[in-house]
Amino acid sequence: MVDRMAINILSRDEKGLLRNITSAIFEHGGNITYTQQFIIDRGKHRGKADIYMEVEGIAHPEQLVEELKRLPTIEEVSLHAPLEQIYGGRVIIIGGGALVAQVALGAVTEADRHNIRGERISVDTIPLVGEEAIADAVGAVSRLHRAQVLVLAGSLMGGKITEEVEKLKEEGIPVIALNMAGSVPEHADLVVTDPIQAGTFAVMHIAKTASFDIGRVRGKRF
């Protein structure tokens, strides 16, 4: 029995595609734990559908692959390790460009130290300006696959951003904020003055080879 695997499918974009794929997986006793689909907009496969699924419970993956290949719209099927094993947990950094870069410096440096030991931690950043844009980005973090911690890097954040921070915390994703003006620091799990240290803390919270836990210092400022 294969505990978990990833299937990547290249196909013509036609109605009923997902139905046919999921039916085949169900018939082989599989349970889909994650899926994404998009239409390729570049290169030799432009206009075709790319479907990625993470599946558990497939006893004979090679039989499933052969059945999928027999579907008339499907052109390629390949098996891979799940994204968690390749890219690992994700640190998300949102805010102003200069501060985001400094937080990322700390996060990438710390992640490198743990990944050398066999961990898998990745760092995602987006520099944004404006309450609406940042609030939308914060609200989307809970929908990001493998997102485990958010760092807000800016000089002033509040209003709708704070509302989204509270919602995100309810989803179980901790929030680290730089020491800034606005209401966000009062609602973050942890407030850190040094942006490099904030990135370091974020990675340490995720890393299995570190002993740091945001839950133990929740509400404190550094």
TrEMBL record:
This is DUF5612 domain-containing protein. Residues 6-82 form the ACT domain. It holds the Pfam family DUF5612. InterPro entries: ACT-like_dom_sf, ACT_dom, CheY-like_superfamily, DUF5612, UCP006363_ACT. It comes from Methermicoccus shengliensis.
